[in-house]
Amino acid sequence: MEHPDPAASTPSAGDVPPTPSAAPATSAGAPPVADPMPTVADVAPADQASPSVAAPPSAPPAPRAKTRGVADIVFLIDVSGSMSPIIDALRRNIEVFVDSLSAGDANNAAPVKDWRGKVVGYGDAEVDPKWFHDNPFVRDAVALKAQLAALRAEGGGDEPESLLDALYKVATMEASPKGAQGEDPGKWRYRSEAARVVVVFTDASFKETLTVPEAKGGSLQDVANVVMANRIILSLFAPNFEGYDRLSQIDRSEWEVVEYEGLSAQEALQKFTADPANFRTTLKQLAASVSKSAETVAL
Fold first, then answer.
1. Fewest Cβ atoms nearer than 10 Å: which of 82, 94, 158, 232?
2. In whole angstroms, what is the distance from residue 250 CA to residue 236 CA?
C-alpha cells in the first residue's frame, strides 16, 4: 500500500487554504470564522525569577491550564452499496480503536482519558432525501458498534458522493458554550475543552459543489475554512483520487491512501478493511495520532 508523502500535509504557498483568522465568512454562507485556538507552543512559560530579583514589569503571563487527553471523535462513513463489507469490518474492529485510545502507545503518547464518539453516514444529497444519517455522541465501544450496525449501505454505482456536504455539516455542528455544566450528546464540546476529530471512510470520489442549504454553491475551500475555524483534525481513509490530495492539504489533516495494484477503489478498501492485522495496526496508529492531538489549551 502506498502512503502519502508526509510533506503532502504541509501545503505549498500556492495551495494553502487561508488560515481561519484571515478568512472571512465564505461566499456560500459559512459562519464567521472563530479566532484560532492557541497551541501549546504559542503559550510562553511563566518566569521563574529568583527571590532576590523582582520580575520585570513586562513579564509574560503564566501559561493557561491544559486539558489533556480529551477528544470528541466522529466516524464519517460513506453508505453507498459497496461499503457494506467496510462497515462490517469497522464494527468488528472498533474496540481495538477504543482500547488503543485508552492505552496510549510504546512512545508514551498521552492516552485519551476522556472520549466520546459517534457514527455519521452520508450518501448523495442530490438523489437521496435521507442522505445524512446522524447519531448522538456516546462513550463506549458497544454503543458505537450499535450505531455502525444501524447503518444501511444502499445504492451504489452513482458516485461521486456528497462528502463535502457531510464534512461541512459535521464541522459546523453546534458546540456547547464554554464552561457548560453537563454534556450535550448532540453537540461538540467547547473547542478548548476537547480535541475534535473526524475520521472518513470512503471508496468513492466526491462532488465538488456543495448543495446543503446553509452552504449551497460552495466548494472545497468553504469546507477547508470551516474545518480549520472549528479546529477539526481530519483523517481520511480514501482512494488515490486527486480530490483527496487536495483535502489532505487542510491543516491538521492526514490521508491513508487505500490502493492495491489491479483492484478498483471499492475492491481496495474492502481488501484493506478485511485484513484484520493490517486494519487493526492502522486503527492503532490512528488512535496514537488522536492521543497526541487530544491536548488543548483552555481559553
1. 158
2. 11
Helix (H, G, I), strand (E, B) or coil at 120: strand
CB 101 within 8 Å of CB 290: yes
Peptide bond into 239 cis (omega under 30): no
Express each pLDDT in 112-137 by its tens digit: 888 999 999 999 998 888 999 999 99
Distance CA 142, CA 165 (A): 28
pLDDT score, position 17: 47
Q: Report how far residue 10's alpha carbon sits from residue 188's, in angstroms, rounded to the nearest whole number.
A: 27
Q: What residue ranges define each of the domains in the chain, with the CATH number in brackets?
A: 75-294 (3.40.50.410)
Chain-centroid distance, C-alpha 171: 9
Q: Distance (Å, rounded) from C-alpha 76 to C-alpha 284?
A: 18
User: pTM for this one?
Assistant: 0.75
| CA separation, residue 298 to residues 15, 193, 234, 295 (Å) | 31, 7, 21, 10
Alpha helices in 112-162 (DSSP H): 141-150
| Interatomic CA distance for residues 100 and 61, integer angstroms | 36
Q: Is the pLDDT of residue 30 over 60?
A: no
Question: Are 74 and 199 within 8 A, CB to CB?
Answer: yes
Confidence bin at 282 (pLDDT 50/70/90): confident
Q: Where are the beta strands (DSSP E) in the chain?
A: 66-68, 70-78, 114-122, 132-133, 195-201, 232-238, 253-257, 295-297
Give the number of other Cβ atoms within 10 Å of residue 56's Cβ: 9
| Residue the block writes with cell 492495491 | 260
